[in-house]
Specification:
Blueprint (H helix, E strand, L loop, with lengths): L6 H67 L1
Length: 74
C-alpha cells in the first residue's frame, strides 16, 4: 500500500518538516537557557543564604566580644 502524493504535497511536507525541526531546535535552545538561568538563580540563593548566615555569625561574635570587654572593665 504505497501512497503516491503530488509533487506540491511532497514539497509542502518537506517545508513543514523543516519548520518543525527549526521549532524543535529553538525549543531545545530555550529549554537549555531556562535550565542555565534556574541553576544560576539557585546558586545565587545558596550563596546569599551562606553570606547572610556568616554576617549574622560575625555580628553575634562582635556583640559577644563587646559584652566580654564591658564585663572586663567592671
Amino acid at each position: 500500500m504505497t501512497e503516491t502524493h503530488s509533487k506540491s504535497r511532497k514539497q509542502a511536507e518537506i517545508a513543514f518538516g523543516n519548520v518543525q525541526s527549526q521549532f524543535l531546535a529553538r525549543s531545545r535552545a530555550v529549554e537549555e537557557i531556562d535550565q542555565t538561568v534556574r541553576a544560576r538563580e539557585e546558586k545565587t540563593l545558596r550563596l546569599r543564604e551562606a553570606r547572610e548566615a556568616k554576617e549574622l555569625q560575625d555580628r553575634l561574635m562582635a556583640a559577644n566580644s563587646l559584652a566580654v570587654k564591658r564585663k572586663k572593665k567592671m
